[in-house]
Amino acid sequence: QVQLVESGGGLVQAGGSLRLSCAVSGRTFSRNAMGWFRQAPGKGRKFVAGISWSGNSTRYVDSVKGRFTISRANAENTVFLQMNNLKPEDTAVYYCAAGSSLFTYDSWGQGTQVTVSS
Question: Which of 25, 51, 83, 96 is the most exposed place for a label (fewest CB within 10 A)?
Fold first, then answer.
């Protein structure tokens, strides 16, 4: 059974930074694309960033381009999301996901809360 466990969320002021981590077990991590999604209060879950199994390809939603960076450490079965210049509108629960491509995900973590104060 695959497990994805997020960490690194918290409360930060606008303009600050956080680094989210997601540890993956029970799945051949290096063969899967990995992604981050977020769900703001009262809204649906939305794609934020994705990275191919090799790490050579990445994809971002327009609102985070230039501020967020997704990366992965296959030897450690871990994916990261570095978030800089955070804005109040980035406040959400952030979920790690695994899948077959940058556009298809089928396993999810439990989420970690990110709150950005103005």
Answer: 25
